[in-house]
Every structure is written in C-alpha cells, then in structure tokens.
C-alpha cells in the first residue's frame, strides 16, 4: 500500500477472505480453490475493461474511473462488488432483474474486500452493466438506491453515480461454477469503510513486526528496517 499510494492512480481492492465467503455462500462451494476465486475475480476485471472491447449505450473508459472516483490523489482505494454470483442450479428459478442486481452490489456480502460499506459513506461509485440492459431501467434502479437509508454519500461530494452499459453479456467458463446469465453489473466504489481493511492490515502487521517475523528476508534483499515503519505511518495516515 505504501508504494501503491505514490505510484498508482486507482487501486481496486480484492481480498481472498471476502471472495472465499462469496464462493461458499453464493456458489455453495464447500472448499473453494484458487481456480474458483480467480474465475470470480476475472468477472470483475472483465467488466472493468468491457467498454474497451465491445460496443454499448454508455461506454466507460478506464481513465474515467480516476476522473469520477478519486476526489483527492491519496484517496484512490476502491471497493468492488459483482452481481449476480449464482450457480447454474439456482439460475433457473431466480429472477435476475436490473433492480435486483443493482441492490445486490450494494450489499456488504457482495463486497470483494472484507468491510461493511454501511459503516462508511460513499464518495462516488461506478456501476458497469453488461448484457440485456436499457438506460431507462438503470435510471430507475439508481433512483431507487438513492432513496435508501443504507447507501449514504458524503456531504461534500455530489451524489456521484457513474453508469456504463455494454451490450455484451457476461461470458463464463463452460462447466464452471458461475451460471450463464443475460445481464450482470459490477460496481467499483470509493467508500470510507475501506479504512476497515487497512486497520486489519495494520493490526496484523503490528503483531508480526513486534516479533520481527520475516523481517530478515526483506532486509537480506536490500530493504532497510526504517522502510517498514515509514510504510506503517503512511498507512495509519491513510486510515484517518
């Protein structure tokens, strides 16, 4: 995170624990493997780049993520979520409407990093729809989200929803865990609750660093111990 602060414009956070939980809960995979995790993550990555590859009603360029989601250069760590995450067995009897998938991506259980967006406030969010989606339905779904008490925006930022619509439906690996669906949405959002992720990293770091666990490997590769405390201070400042 220390070097990501300086050298990147936008960072999308994904954490294994959260993606494991999504695989267990939504896809009924008792012991998810890295393949299961990666297939789910690849849907998010694919959604981020669809507008570069296919046509749509409202295209979202990669540079627009930075323009729309980053209010200050240091605050560029994004939460991501994706819906519908549904297994082929369940897909037959589940309604996957635009309002349903839009509501789903705002649920804490859909977040791909372990934190609760309800504990924080949104600075901006970007919704990328793909498949059988029309702007009218998207506008209605977003208006409905704006009326919800659980989705709160910071007062110094206008209620920023950036929407992208792409006509290419999501593709899945044949015989994989995810069902082939007509439409899907991926959300990338800038929410203050992301601090929960950093505080958890801080706690784990403090615990290990107090015992100097693994430090010798890094020092042996040419790092200095001072860099650890500098990085720790940087993260503490970001958390605030």
Automatic annotation (TrEMBL):
Annotated family: Belongs to the tubulin family.
What name does this protein carry?
A: Alpha tubulin 5
Q: Which reactions are catalysed by this chain?
A: GTP + H2O = GDP + phosphate + H(+)
> Where does it live in the cell?
Cytoplasm
The entry's function note states: Tubulin is the major constituent of microtubules, a cylinder consisting of laterally associated linear protofilaments composed of alpha- and beta-tubulin heterodimers. Microtubules grow by the addition of GTP-tubulin dimers to the microtubule end, where a stabilizing cap forms. Below the cap, tubulin dimers are in GDP-bound state, owing to GTPase activity of alpha-tubulin.
Q: Which InterPro entries match?
A: Alpha_tubulin, Tub_FtsZ_C, Tubulin, Tubulin/FtsZ-like_C, Tubulin/FtsZ_2-layer-sand-dom, Tubulin/FtsZ_GTPase_sf, Tubulin_C
Sorted alphabetically, which SMART domains does this protein's record hold?
A: Tubulin_C (SM00865)
Oligomeric state and interaction partners are given as: Dimer of alpha and beta chains. A typical microtubule is a hollow water-filled tube with an outer diameter of 25 nm and an inner diameter of 15 nM. Alpha-beta heterodimers associate head-to-tail to form protofilaments running lengthwise along the microtubule wall with the beta-tubulin subunit facing the microtubule plus end conferring a structural polarity. Microtubules usually have 13 protofilaments but different protofilament numbers can be found in some organisms and specialized cells.
Q: Name one GO biological process term.
A: microtubule-based process
What are the entry keywords?
Answer: Cytoplasm, GTP-binding, Hydrolase, Microtubule, Nucleotide-binding
From what organism does this protein derive? Caragana korshinskii
Mention any Pfam family matching this sequence. Tubulin_C
Tubulin/FtsZ 2-layer sandwich domain ranges (all copies): 58-203
> Cofactor(s) for this protein?
Mg(2+)
Q: Which gene encodes it?
A: TUA5
Q: GO molecular function terms here?
A: GTP binding; hydrolase activity; structural constituent of cytoskeleton
Provide a GO CC annotation, any one.
Answer: microtubule
- What Gene3D superfamilies does the record point to? Helix hairpin bin, Tubulin/FtsZ, C-terminal domain, Tubulin/FtsZ, GTPase domain
Q: What is its main location?
A: cytoplasm
């Amino acid at each position: 995170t220390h070097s990501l602060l300086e050298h990147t414009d936008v960072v999308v956070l994904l954490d294994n624990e959260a993606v494991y939980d999504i695989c267990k809960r939504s896809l009924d995979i008792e012991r998810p493997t890295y393949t299961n995790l990666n297939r789910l993550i690849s849907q998010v990555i694919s959604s981020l780049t669809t507008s570069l590859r296919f046509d749509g009603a409202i295209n979202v360029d990669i540079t627009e993520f930075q323009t729309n989601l980053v209010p200050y250069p240091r605050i560029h760590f994004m939460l991501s979520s994706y819906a519908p995450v549904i297994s082929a067995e369940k897909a037959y009897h589940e309604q996957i409407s635009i309002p349903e998938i839009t509501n789903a991506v705002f649920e804490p259980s859909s977040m791909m990093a372990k934190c609760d967006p309800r504990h924080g406030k949104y600075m901006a969010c970007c919704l990328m729809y793909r498949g059988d989606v029309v702007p009218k339905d998207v506008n209605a779904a977003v208006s409905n989200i704006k009326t919800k008490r659980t989705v709160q925006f910071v007062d110094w930022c206008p209620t920023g929803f950036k929407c992208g619509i792409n006509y290419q439906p999501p593709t899945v690996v044949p015989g994989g865990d995810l069902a082939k669906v007509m439409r899907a949405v991926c959300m990338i959002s800038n929410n203050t609750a992301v601090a929960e992720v950093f505080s958890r990293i801080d706690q784990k770091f403090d615990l290990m660093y107090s015992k100097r666990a693994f430090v010798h490997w890094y020092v042996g590769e040419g790092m200095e111990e001072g860099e650890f405390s500098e990085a720790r201070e940087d993260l503490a400042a970001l958390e605030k």
